[in-house]
Amino acid sequence: MKNKIRNTGLVLVGLLCLAVLNCRSSMDKLTPAPVSSQVLKYAEKEPNDFWYGIPSLWDLKEIRNEIALKHRNATVRHRRGIEDEEFRYDFAMGLLNSSIQESEDFQQLVIGTEDNPVSILGILAGLGLTGVGTVLGGRYIKRPQEKKLEKQLNGKKKKN
After folding, report:
1. Residue 82 Ramachandran class (φ > 0 left, ψ -120 to 50 alpha, else beta)
2. What angle, rounded to 10 degrees, do the helices at 120-127 and 57-111 form?
3. What is the DSSP letter of 50?
4. Side-chain half-sphere exposure of 78, counting CA atoms within 13 A
5. Per residue in 121-139, pLDDT tens?
6. Main-chain phi, psi angles of 142, to 5 degrees
7. Predicted pLDDT at 96
């Protein structure tokens, strides 16, 4: 009989220890808690997701953890996107700056610079080839206003 009472006492002490340790989560499950519809929308939850459609304190703590995880994932995704964009930007700007430098070097070769007076145009001018191009261009390439003026002058010459 003593063993039976002692065993019963040990079982009760064990249950009491379990109740004390588990009391907090049990109370959280039974405590109703109001939740905003914006929170439910952000957490992608429905009122039917809760026990009898009533959110509890335990549910809200779970939602808080889910929202924190969702926010952390979104932040990491955005940071990676920003890093990718910076890489693409640096790559494009490097190519563009290289092309600009190449074109400026070509322009300096054709026209010349203060530091280097030798240029392709200077060499061609010395040979007299640029003057020929200017004369031919002035003779055969005309703007629309010049063509009208030439027609008017030719028309007056024919009348006289």
Report:
1. alpha
2. 20
3. S
4. 6
5. 666 666 655 555 555 555 5
6. -130, 150
7. 95
Residues with Cβ within 8 Å of 56's Cβ and at least 6 positions away in sequence, in order, are: 28, 29, 30, 31, 32, 33, 50
Question: Could you count the other beta carbons within 10 Å of the beta carbon of residue 119?
Answer: 16
Are residues 56 and 31 in contact, defined by beta-carbon separation less than 8 angstroms? yes
Domain spans, the chain: 1-30, 32-111
Question: What is the dihedral angle through the alpha carbons of 145, 147, 151, 156, rounded to the nearest 10 degrees?
Answer: 60
Which comes out higher in pLDDT, residue 69 or 155?
69
Global pTM reads 0.50
- Residue by residue, DSSP assigns 23-48 as HHHHHHHHSB----HHHHHHTT--GG
* Helix or strand run (H / E) with residue 58: helix 57-111
The answer on pLDDT for 102 being more than 90 is yes
56: helix, strand or coil = strand
Amino acid at 54: I
Q: Which amino acid is at 159?
A: K
Structure tokens at 68: 């924190």
Residue with tokens 């890093």, as numbered in its chain:
83
